[in-house]
């Protein structure tokens, strides 16, 4: 895509990106339509918020909501947690936790998540539970395509007992929709059910979803359009 970037610090095991060094020079060969100059710190904070939310969801069931530049994590039997996607701060009760600074010090998503759970008194469930695969998919989309392409979650809506996630390519770019029943819909009116893809690794599933939306010709759709 249009950003030529590398990851200064990358926790390979957890896809733990924090300090991203993003070159502002556009690669003309790739002709990316998402090339805009963005603040490195804000990009990193955006990704880190989703990653920490995912870590917390591994301990307690919950749901992610998005309201503008805020990610709201509603954990079962706990007060909502508010992540500022621009600054990377986590607001909970009377606490304001600067995730950026803390991640620099801890150098591990697991350790940072563990400390957050202690500070805001999040009690893990006695029995193990599985994170909603859709939540994992959303986080992987952000991890892989936010820095490259400006992909973000524009809105989360509930309609007829379904949750609908709108994924958007940069601020004024095209949208696609992911439904909690596994149905994907792109801006061309095409629909596909992800059920046959759910056995894939989360990273590959994210690539399929990105490709289905035809956001970039360098990521072809896994589904052939009907003519």
Domains, number: 2
Low-confidence spans: 1-31
> Which strand-content bin applies to the residues?
25-35%
Content-based structural category: alpha+beta
Amino- and carboxy-terminal Cα gap: 28 Å
Record field, number of beta strands: 14
Query: What global shape is seen?
Result: globular
CA gyration radius, whole angstroms? 17 Å
User: In this structure, how is the largest beta sheet organized?
Assistant: 5 strands, antiparallel
Q: Please state the average pLDDT score.
A: 81
Give me the number of helical elements. 5
* Strand order in space, largest sheet: 5-6-7-8-9
Q: What attributes does this structure have?
A:
29% helix; five-stranded antiparallel beta sheet; alpha+beta; 2 domains; 227 residues; disordered N terminus
Record the SSE blueprint.
Elements: E1 3-7, E2 10-11, E3 16-17, E4 20-26, H1 40-57, E5 62-67, E6 70-75, E7 81-84, E8 89-92, E9 95-98, H2 99-106, H3 109-119, H4 133-149, E10 151-159, E11 162-169, E12 175-179, E13 183-186, E14 191-193, H5 202-212
Antiparallel strand pairs: 1-4, 2-3, 5-6, 6-7, 7-8, 8-9, 10-11, 11-12, 12-13, 13-14
Helix pairs in contact: 1-3, 1-4, 4-5
Description:
The chain is of the alpha+beta class and 227 residues long. The chain folds into two domains: 3-119, no CATH class; 133-212. It has helices at 40-57, 99-106, 109-119, 133-149, 202-212, and strands spanning 3-7, 10-11, 16-17, 20-26, 62-67, 70-75, 81-84, 89-92, 95-98, 151-159, 162-169, 175-179, 183-186, 191-193. A five-stranded antiparallel sheet has the order 5-6-7-8-9. A five-stranded antiparallel sheet has the order 10-11-12-13-14. Helix 1 packs across helix 3 and helix 4 (133-149) packs across helix 5. The longest helix has 18 residues, at 40-57.
